[in-house]
Amino acid sequence: MKDTYFNDDWRFKVANREAIVGCILAAINILWWFGFAYGLGSKPPEEYTYVLGFPAWFFWSCIVGYLVMVVLVFIVVKFVLKEVPLNDDVEDEEEESA
């Protein structure tokens, strides 16, 4: 009986979707960092270009990557994730009012 409760509860579906969104954000962060760090940083140090005093690979992978991820997380939290009640009282109240 408990297994059907967990399978029928809508909050688990929401939590699963939000976990997938979090994993996608983490994958984007890793790909961004890896692409710029190893893409621009694979040259000898004498051939590096500099942005604001930082090597370009560091600037684009760590500094700009951080800012991009902050904006992406803000957008996801504001528009994708939704608040879910964590207590069972809400479900009991919904059943009583129906």
Automatic annotation (TrEMBL):
UniProt cross-references to Pfam families, sorted A to Z: DUF997
Keywords: Membrane, Transmembrane, Transmembrane helix
Entry's transmembrane regions: 20-38, 58-81
Entry-linked PANTHER family: INNER MEMBRANE PROTEIN, INNER MEMBRANE PROTEIN-RELATED
Protein's UniProt name: Uncharacterized membrane protein YhdT
Organism in which the protein naturally occurs: Lentibacillus persicus
